[in-house]
Fold these 2 entries.
Entry 1:
Amino acid sequence: MIALAALCAGLLVMPVSAGSIVTGQVSRRVNKVRARPPYEVSPAARALHGRLRVADMHADPLLWGRDLLRRNGHGHVDVPRLIDGGVALQVFSIVTQAPMGINIKSNDANRGDLITSLAVASGWPRKTWTSKLERARHQAGSFEAAAERSGGRLVAIRTREDLQEYLAARGTGTVAGLLSVEGAQALEGKLENVEALYVMGVRMVGLTHFVDNEAGGSAHGTSGGGLSEFGRQVLAALEERLMIVDLAHASPALIDDVLKHGKTPPVVSHTGVRGTCPNERNLTDDQLKRIGAKGGLISIGFWRIATCGDDADAAARAIVHAAKVAGASRVALGSDFDGAVAQPFDASGLPLLTEALLEQGMPEKDIALVMGGNVLRFLSERLPER
Ligand SMILES: [Zn+2]
């Protein structure tokens, strides 16, 4: 979500009719892969990967208007490539705001918004041009529509029962999807919009994204603030509704506040760790320990700002470090595929990560946990029953 800035500025001047073509071109430029498929891995890694239930906590393909059911020659995620990568469950994230000049250090909410440009240029419904909640509704709708016309290849998960049924019946050639939102600005300052997101199928909410919002401070905002009074109410409302609280992009003070006031374990849906890659985007060992102690999940991303590297080995190093500090049962994958970042591989390349974890000496039972076992356990404990 960094390289998007310059490209989206250009979208403002495009006619709406050219929208989907232009959005596709932007996606091609910002969602690059460093190595293209097919991916070669050792027979041992391929065999182990085939036995895993893989799950990824964060990807943004809904932003780009691609047909999720078709194999695309660009970007990182679509159903055929998720299936090739052995993915059992993918969290599809909804993005509603991204500031001009986006960066990981300091972003001012008043500097203009790239998603407004994207919504206009993509020809999204007019309501989305001014409403972040409507942007969420639009992206949730495109996910649901894809699931409906997929003939069972993409299964929308909203409840524990959905997940259990899916896992019990899972054959090859299917993937489950769960909706999340990046940033509580999608609530537009109204508590009742928690319910609106729930009705759309959203089951995980990141409290902040790149700018401070009504709920609290972003890791990349200007205030460094924790939870606001509204944020406390949002936290309580999410927990009451059994919606998962996501601390990706949260300021350190916000993380502290949620760990203090929250009654349920939070997740960090996509992050790196300072132990292998020190910068503002990534979690300290102390944060890893405290989130782990609360029963939360830390989902490790693959892109360079998260890992300080460009390959599966760098992501594996971050995973191994997080497992050492917080425990293997607290670590997961949070790729940030299609998040306007270059990735070492697309979704079909996930066996490379299994191979890198094997090479770094992680025991097979721990690989099974971090590659997806923990996410599926967490969701089967935390989602609404039915
Ligand atoms: Zn993000």
Entry 2:
Amino acid sequence: MDEIRLLAGPSVRMRAFVDTAPVLEKCLAARAGLGWIGKNSLLLHPQFGSWLVLGEIITDLELSCDSPLADGCGKCTRCLEKCPTAALVQPCCLDARRCLSYLTLESKKPIPAEFAGRMNQFILGCDLCQDACPYNQNPRLPERSAFQPCRQALNLDELLSLDETAFQETFAGSSLLHAGLTRLQQSARLVRHNP
Ligand code: B12
Ligand code: SF4
Ligand code: SF4
């Protein structure tokens, strides 16, 4: 935003969002020509696939628009086939109540038994409908240090042995704190017996 202010002058009004407000980010990104909404319901870019996070600056600056990109999914349905819980009920349409990402990250209720055996080794979030996508096969690693992974894979026994104090210390600065120890340990107990 500082750079925009340098170019456009101090009177320009702006506000930035990154998954932080009720803004239809995928829809806006598609209309801004950054990609198309794939059948996995995520924004896909021809080069980066869906391995990207969206952020936006809303401003009163008069800017010219790019044209939206054409749909690149074609007849492919790999993401729908790969979803372990059939949460992608039709192309581009996700039933969040069945999605492991919702169940492990957002839901306040215990994970229903019918989904426990389908969690693979995911204790938080799920990327299977992204892993399956042909556009996601050669991911570009982020250069910025802020986007580098801050920790290697979690050890389930270690996670299950943590108390709240140790959890806060171990994951200080990580988004895992948002999930909370109770939720993570619930998932860890469920995936322990999965192959
Ligand atoms: C709620 C939410 C979830 C929910 C529901 C997701 C869903 N697909 O509905 C849950 C918890 C399940 C979830 C999971 C994930 N999420 Co999420 N989530 C959001 C959030 C906060 C809101 C999305 C939303 O429901 N908006 C409200 C509805 C009405 O809008 P919408 O879904 O965008 O649909 C509108 C338009 O897109 C358009 N539209 C929809 N489909 C189509 C199809 C066509 C053809 C057209 C023309 C238009 C169109 O019409 C709709 C109505 O206006 C966004 C951030 C944000 N503020 O947008 C992140 C966001 C979508 N999530 C993101 C990510 C990364 C994930 C996960 C991969 C995380 C993970 N690893 O577990 C999974 C992926 C699951 C999946 N396959 O979608 C990223 C996606 C980046 C990308 N490449 O698109 C976002 C954008 C966050 C970010 N800032 O980067 N998420
Ligand atoms: S994130 Fe996992 S559970 Fe959710 S739609 Fe994608 S594959 Fe299905
Ligand atoms: S897996 Fe196929 S259908 Fe699904 S989002 Fe990727 S290209 Fe589109």
